[in-house]
Fold this protein.
Amino acid sequence: MQHSLRIFSGSSNPQLVQNICQKLGVEPGKIKISRFKSGEIYVHYEETIRNCDVFLVQSLSRPINELLVELLVMIDAAKRASARTVNVILPYYGYARQERKSAPREPISAKLLADVLTTAGANRIVTIDLHAAAIQGFFNIPVDHLTALDLISDYLKSKNIERPVIVSPDAGRASMAEKLASRLDSPFAIMIKKRPAHNESVITHVIGDVDGRTPIIIEDLIDTGSTIVNVVEGLKERNAHPAIVCATHGLFSGPALEKLTHPHIEEVVVTDSIELPVSGPPCFTVLSVAPMLARAIRIILDGGSIATLFRDAGI
């Protein structure tokens, strides 16, 4: 496996790549990524990758457009260097929130991104907790859709939380909330909200009993933190205890970290799918997806089943 495997890091999250390589017992591939004075991106693989299975790791976080073009240039360079396969690991799939048209004359940017990655030369996509699972269908190449649900549920079990209730911030997360509630043997509730604008939400109803319980809010990502704060305030009004907020991807745009330092938020649990600030608030807990991604790479190379990574193969 080590003879043909090469793992290369983009600029988005080099520490995650170090952790993945450590789990696999290999060294990160040597790659030079630089910028011309004009801002154009230059990539050079500093070792041979001919007939190798190349894995490129890049989260499409901030600055997303810069990181996307960097990834495309990496894919093209690998393809032209005669790599046997070019496997793209996107721990966070950017533009995933634009997966359908909710109004006339809007783009479906998640589909556009799928087309661009495929055209550039990607042979396989590995990603974690897409905003909408249907995005897998936008690709005509294999997509391995992993989930951090096992990671998060194991951590929550270790805390022995008294009287928990799993809370879905909207109907879109209800399926994930139900799975987590089943694993923790807890009830769950759903928040009904409306969005007057992007990155804004207003809670209108709560379905389920949260009175006197510890809410565990489950999300795929936290961006500005406004939705989470609105959910927490809505739970507080219904006599819930301070909440534990769980999300796979921590974008934390703008003053999100300050918003999440909230008196009614006991803890924020995220993964390292996106590189996080060196010094986050003390209430933050970061779980690593590196072991899961390392196992996925082994399975892909050995020809096994990705479903063996999960307790619930239907996820």
Q: What stands out?
A: The chain has eight helices and 14 strands. The chain has a mean pLDDT of 92. The longest strand covers residues 214-222.
